[in-house]
Write a structure and sequence with these properties.
The protein is built from 5 helices and no strands. By secondary structure, the chain is mainly alpha-helical.
């Protein structure tokens, strides 16, 4: 079920909702989709190269890069590990 108060353009490529970020709300960031240029965000580049809207659409999610690359995502590492275990068990 889609929520009408969530702006799709504020969902970053990693899946984080920029509208919940204090930096965005303070007007110090335009949001991930508008604020990143090619090459300055691993997840942005990866998602666009694969033709996806979000990282979570990838069949490899969460990939080893998200777990090992510094600043590849703002998603919580322990949640990503949990998600990886769930993917492997199902």
């Amino acid at each position: 079920m889609a929520r009408s108060d969530v702006e799709p353009d504020l969902i970053g490529f990693c899946g984080f909702y920029c509208g919940s970020c204090p930096t965005y709300r303070a007007g110090e960031c335009p949001g991930c989709r508008l604020g990143h240029r090619e090459g300055d965000c691993f997840t942005n580049t990866c998602v666009q190269t694969r033709g996806l809207r979000f990282c979570g659409e990838c069949p490899d999610f969460p990939c080893p890069d998200l777990l090992t690359r510094e600043k590849a995502t703002v998603l919580d590492r322990s949640w990503l590990l949990w998600k990886r275990r769930k993917r492997g068990s199902g």
